[in-house]
Amino acid sequence: MSHLPTDLKYTDAHLWVRPEEDGTVTLGLTDHVQQALGTIYSLDAPSVGEHLDVGDECIAVEAEQTNIDIFSPISGDIIECNEDLADSPTLINADPYDDGWIIQVRPDDISELDDLMDVHDYQELIEEEQE
Predict the structure, then answer these.
(1) Residue 120 is part of a domain; what is its CATH number?
(2) Assigned domain for 131 exists
(3) What pLDDT sits at residue 2?
(4) pLDDT tens across 56-73, in order?
(5) N or C: which end of the chain has fewer CB within 10 A?
Protein backbone atom coordinates (compact mmCIF):
# COMPACT_ATOMS: atom_id res chain seq x y z
CA MET A 1 0.00 0.00 0.00
CA SER A 2 1.15 3.54 -0.71
CA HIS A 3 2.38 5.91 1.95
CA LEU A 4 -0.43 7.82 3.72
CA PRO A 5 0.39 10.69 6.08
CA THR A 6 -1.97 10.70 9.03
CA ASP A 7 -2.19 14.49 9.40
CA LEU A 8 -3.92 15.09 6.06
CA LYS A 9 -7.50 15.06 4.83
CA TYR A 10 -8.38 13.13 1.66
CA THR A 11 -11.00 13.19 -1.09
CA ASP A 12 -12.56 10.33 -3.02
CA ALA A 13 -10.76 11.73 -6.09
CA HIS A 14 -7.42 10.98 -4.39
CA LEU A 15 -6.51 14.55 -3.55
CA TRP A 16 -4.83 15.29 -0.23
CA VAL A 17 -5.50 18.47 1.73
CA ARG A 18 -3.14 19.77 4.41
CA PRO A 19 -4.34 22.52 6.77
CA GLU A 20 -1.48 24.93 7.42
CA GLU A 21 -0.81 26.88 10.62
CA ASP A 22 -1.63 30.20 8.91
CA GLY A 23 -5.18 29.05 8.04
CA THR A 24 -4.44 28.21 4.42
CA VAL A 25 -4.63 24.72 2.93
CA THR A 26 -2.27 22.96 0.53
CA LEU A 27 -3.56 20.46 -2.04
CA GLY A 28 -1.88 17.70 -4.00
CA LEU A 29 -2.32 14.24 -5.48
CA THR A 30 -1.95 11.23 -3.22
CA ASP A 31 0.82 8.69 -3.57
CA HIS A 32 -1.85 6.11 -4.42
CA VAL A 33 -3.17 8.00 -7.44
CA GLN A 34 0.24 9.06 -8.74
CA GLN A 35 1.25 5.38 -8.77
CA ALA A 36 -1.92 4.50 -10.69
CA LEU A 37 -1.38 7.33 -13.18
CA GLY A 38 2.22 6.47 -13.92
CA THR A 39 4.57 9.20 -15.07
CA ILE A 40 2.88 12.59 -14.93
CA TYR A 41 3.59 14.55 -18.10
CA SER A 42 1.77 17.80 -17.35
CA LEU A 43 -0.90 19.40 -15.28
CA ASP A 44 -3.09 22.43 -15.56
CA ALA A 45 -4.00 24.19 -12.32
CA PRO A 46 -5.73 27.51 -11.64
CA SER A 47 -3.73 30.71 -11.36
CA VAL A 48 -2.98 32.72 -8.25
CA GLY A 49 -5.94 34.99 -7.53
CA GLU A 50 -8.58 32.70 -8.99
CA HIS A 51 -11.49 31.69 -6.78
CA LEU A 52 -12.64 28.09 -6.45
CA ASP A 53 -15.95 26.77 -5.22
CA VAL A 54 -16.41 23.23 -3.95
CA GLY A 55 -16.87 21.02 -7.00
CA ASP A 56 -15.11 23.32 -9.49
CA GLU A 57 -12.66 21.58 -11.79
CA CYS A 58 -9.30 22.70 -10.43
CA ILE A 59 -6.57 20.38 -11.71
CA ALA A 60 -6.25 18.56 -15.04
CA VAL A 61 -3.55 15.89 -15.12
CA GLU A 62 -2.00 14.30 -18.21
CA ALA A 63 -0.18 11.10 -17.35
CA GLU A 64 1.22 7.90 -18.79
CA GLN A 65 -1.81 5.73 -17.99
CA THR A 66 -4.69 8.22 -18.32
CA ASN A 67 -5.79 11.83 -18.04
CA ILE A 68 -7.90 12.94 -15.10
CA ASP A 69 -9.72 16.04 -13.88
CA ILE A 70 -9.75 16.81 -10.17
CA PHE A 71 -12.48 18.89 -8.54
CA SER A 72 -11.96 21.28 -5.66
CA PRO A 73 -12.83 19.96 -2.21
CA ILE A 74 -12.85 23.47 -0.73
CA SER A 75 -13.92 27.00 -1.63
CA GLY A 76 -11.41 29.82 -1.55
CA ASP A 77 -8.83 31.90 -3.34
CA ILE A 78 -5.67 30.44 -4.88
CA ILE A 79 -2.76 32.12 -3.14
CA GLU A 80 0.13 30.05 -4.48
CA CYS A 81 0.85 27.53 -7.21
CA ASN A 82 3.82 25.18 -7.25
CA GLU A 83 5.74 26.75 -10.13
CA ASP A 84 8.31 23.93 -10.07
CA LEU A 85 5.68 21.60 -11.56
CA ALA A 86 5.64 23.54 -14.84
CA ASP A 87 9.13 22.28 -15.67
CA SER A 88 9.08 19.10 -13.56
CA PRO A 89 5.59 17.60 -13.20
CA THR A 90 7.24 14.32 -12.19
CA LEU A 91 7.91 15.93 -8.79
CA ILE A 92 4.44 14.60 -8.01
CA ASN A 93 5.64 11.08 -8.80
CA ALA A 94 8.83 11.50 -6.78
CA ASP A 95 7.45 13.30 -3.72
CA PRO A 96 3.65 13.75 -3.79
CA TYR A 97 3.30 15.07 -0.23
CA ASP A 98 6.10 17.60 -0.11
CA ASP A 99 7.84 18.87 -3.27
CA GLY A 100 4.89 17.69 -5.42
CA TRP A 101 2.19 19.85 -3.83
CA ILE A 102 0.05 21.63 -6.43
CA ILE A 103 -1.84 24.65 -5.07
CA GLN A 104 -2.38 26.56 -1.85
CA VAL A 105 -5.80 28.01 -1.05
CA ARG A 106 -7.09 30.56 1.45
CA PRO A 107 -10.40 28.88 2.30
CA ASP A 108 -13.69 30.75 2.57
CA ASP A 109 -14.86 28.33 5.27
CA ILE A 110 -12.31 26.04 6.93
CA SER A 111 -15.14 23.86 8.25
CA GLU A 112 -15.51 22.46 4.70
CA LEU A 113 -12.55 20.26 5.64
CA ASP A 114 -14.87 18.43 8.03
CA ASP A 115 -16.53 16.85 4.97
CA LEU A 116 -13.28 15.21 3.86
CA MET A 117 -11.93 11.79 4.82
CA ASP A 118 -9.32 11.11 7.46
CA VAL A 119 -6.52 8.63 6.77
CA HIS A 120 -8.53 5.63 8.01
CA ASP A 121 -11.53 6.39 5.79
CA TYR A 122 -9.22 6.98 2.84
CA GLN A 123 -7.47 3.63 3.41
CA GLU A 124 -10.89 1.95 3.35
CA LEU A 125 -11.72 3.69 0.06
CA ILE A 126 -8.48 2.41 -1.51
CA GLU A 127 -9.16 -1.12 -0.29
CA GLU A 128 -12.72 -1.04 -1.69
CA GLU A 129 -11.46 0.21 -5.06
CA GLN A 130 -8.92 -2.63 -5.21
CA GLU A 131 -11.53 -5.36 -4.65
Answers:
(1) 2.40.50.100
(2) no
(3) 66
(4) 999 999 999 999 999 999
(5) C
